[in-house]
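ok trying again, last paste got cut off:
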Amino acid sequence: MKRLIFILPLAAFLLIGTYLLIGLGLDPHKLPNMLEGKPGPAFSLPGLEGRDDKGFSNTDLIGSVSLVNVFGSWCVACRVEHPYLMQLKKTNAVPVHGIDWREPDRQAGPTWLQRHGDPYTLIGDDPNSRAAIAFGVTGAPETFVVDKQGIIRYKHIGPITDEVWSGTLKPLIDHLKGEGG
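nice, full thing came through this time. structure:
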């Protein structure tokens, strides 16, 4: 009985330690993406106030390889990423569509884009998180690579940087453009 008193805490400690070691080895940026390899979710968002476009829906994702970028004017990391999105637009590397997510008011997104520039081909307003929830967004910014058939091929969590673009996104986009997908 005395031996059991010493063994149980040791066994519990080893079990907890094993789970912690496994957890430390996981990459927190690689969350499972349940949509990867599947068609993008059905959604239809109105355009932003002050922008002369129709908004943005899943049917707009058919026909060309594109990025879907979820952002918000309130998002600090989005501000870090934004100059890179402007560079992608300037070089015409790939169409970037935006989902303006959970703004505090209807003018916040348009005002932010006027101040910092508008890199988006199409953009939709998602104040109630309907599209963000459908995409499985956990925070902003998040960017999805979508092929010509509207299939989600990759989800990137966090800002797009030179390293992310050249090491992951650009090679995937080039591959998808090359295979017709």
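cool. The chain has a mean pLDDT of 89. The chain has five helices and seven strands.
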